[in-house]
Amino acid sequence: RASRGPLTLSLRYEDASTLVYDDPLARSTCHLNAVPSDVHLSDWRALLRRPTQGRALLRRLLSAARAALATSFWADEGWRRSVLRPGVVDSVDDLRLHEIAALNAVPSQYQLHL
Fold first, then answer.
1. Which segments of the chain have a pLDDT < 70?
2. From the CB of residue 75, how many other CB atoms can be counted at a distance below 10 Å?
3. What is the 3-state secondary structure (H, E, C) of 43-59?
4. How far apart are CA 63 and CA 100, in angstroms?
5. How far apart are CA 113 and CA 14, in angstroms?
6. Which one of 2, 6, 19, 24 is at 20 to 30 Å from 73 when CA atoms are compared?
7. pLDDT for the residue 18
């Protein structure tokens, strides 16, 4: 096989059970993947087997992605100046009003990611 070079991720956030990194196929300057690191779920349908735990997992992933947004993007004045129009978004909470959070319908990367 031909080598494609080293595989790297831009890690934005990590805790004991979650990783957040830049999506390798990003469609915006802030396109993140939040992945559970304590459980393997090939796709979102696994969440339906235990809806209460599934909802808690989705909330955890969203919280981790929002933490990465706050520390890696909102905290970067250069990013804010280059991406956001002045006066339109005044806080990270305002920015969250524009977020889109989704799961792939068809498995990709063979691990659930938000």
1. 1-5, 107
2. 11
3. CHHHHHHCHHHHHHHHH
4. 13
5. 14
6. 6
7. 97
